[in-house]
Design a protein that fits this description.
Layout: E1 19-25, E2 28-35, E3 40-44, H1 58-61, E4 66-70, H2 87-100, E5 106-111, H3 113-124, E6 129-135, H4 146-151, H5 156-160, H6 168-184, H7 196-203, H8 209-222, E7 223-224, E8 227-228, E9 244-249, H9 258-266, E10 271-275, H10 282-285, H11 287-300, H12 308-317, H13 328-338
Parallel strand pairs: 3-4, 3-5, 5-6, 6-9, 9-10
Antiparallel strand pairs: 1-2, 2-4, 7-8
Helix pairs in contact: 2-3, 6-7, 9-13
Length: about 350
């Protein structure tokens, strides 16, 4: 019988467990995990999640790299103010944190919303990015899990308040455990439930009023009832000389793997890795393969040397059809998405 991806656990790495560190920037406390020495790898988590989501892979990456995994503002142990939670603001926050730490260049790895933040960071601060890895990234086209569309609507805020009732969170976590076991069994009901345990894990963190308000502001900045409201496809051509890795699970029920193929088509020279029997969290489903893919990517690609003249010329010229690869249908889909109402963050 095939091994379930979620059973592929990694052995602990002595002396490489990350430290949880706090810095105050612009008056707000920012939490981040840090471990290791060497070239810097920045790990950016997804919406409603926190830096702990990377806990299984950080110690292994830290054997060769300095790993920094922040809690985005409004998430985890970072402050949760009434603030700007757009991907552009998050990109600024990453720049400020790295500046405080005296770091000038990073390999950026972003998951889900964090992928959108990573792409925006590469757009706003191209001189700071050595490489870019997008993991089940948001911001490609409209498609997104129906739960997230519903969660962006006003009436759901009342439903989430039910999680504050006594016993609600233990019941949610119990349901998540049952679904996780069901998914790992031969009776698993299909890809739709593949990501449910992780989505429930994220949901269980939301009952605190400030946490939920920050989550809602973040969600509404990128998703409405129709789906995702921003796309990075109109600026993917700017990654022409940047080493880019795309990692997706073929069972992703949150952001379909079709998005990976569109992004791969729109990003010249990018590398696409699709994990079989993996969902929206491939680095949790199959951490061993994820580490191998990421380390191979870093080891086999040179750091980008930013060329301001080339960047300026790309902005002047814009994207051309010759910059988009793939089949005719894929190229048409990319051009169609680029011509839609959705656009990148400014």
């Amino acid at each position: 019988m095939a091994t379930s991806p979620r059973s592929r656990k990694l052995r602990p790495v002595p002396d490489q467990e990350p430290r949880l560190i706090f810095r105050t920037i612009h008056g707000y406390r920012r939490a981040f995990r840090m471990a290791g020495e060497g070239p810097v790898v920045l790990l950016i988590h997804g919406i409603g999640d926190n830096s702990e989501t990377w806990s299984e892979v950080i110690p292994h990456l830290a054997k060769n790299y300095t790993v920094i995994a922040p809690d985005l503002l409004g998430h985890g142990r970072s402050d949760k103010p009434r603030a700007d939670y757009s991907v552009a603001a998050y990109a600024n926050g990453m720049r400020d944190l790295l500046s405080v730490l005296g770091i000038e260049h990073v390999t950026v790895i972003g998951h889900s919303l964090g992928g959108g933040v990573a792409m925006q960071f590469a757009y706003q601060f191209p001189n700071m990015v050595d490489r870019l890895a997008l993991v089940s990234s948001g911001g490609v086209t409209k498609d997104v899990h129906p739960i997230l569309r519903l969660a962006s609507m006003p009436f759901l805020s009342e439903a989430v308040k039910l999680l504050r009732l006594p016993g609600a969170i233990p019941a949610v976590k119990l349901a998540g455990g049952i679904l996780s076991k069901l998914h790992s069994s031969p009776l698993r009901p299909g890809s739709l439930l593949h990501d449910t345990p992780d989505l429930i894990r994220v949901l269980s963190e939301l009952p605190a009023p400030t946490t939920y308000e920050a989550y809602l502001r973040t969600l509404r900045a990128v998703v409405d009832w129709r789906g995702q409201v921003v796309t990075m496809l109109d600026r993917c051509y700017l990654t022409e000389n940047l080493p880019v890795l795309l990692v997706w699970g073929d069972q992703d029920s949150v952001i379909p793997v079709s998005h990976a193929r569109l992004a791969h088509s729109a990003m010249p020279g990018s590398t696409l890795e699709v994990f079989e029997n993996s969902g929206h969290f491939p680095f949790r489903d199959d951490p061993m393969r994820f580490l191998q893919v990421v380390e191979d990517f870093i080891d086999s690609t040179p750091s980008l040397t930013f060329d301001e003249v080339r960047w300026r010329n790309l902005l002047i010229t814009g994207v051309g059809e010759d910059m988009i690869s793939g089949s005719a249908s894929t190229r048409m889909a990319v051009l169609g998405a680029m011509g839609s109402d959705e656009r990148s963050a400014t």
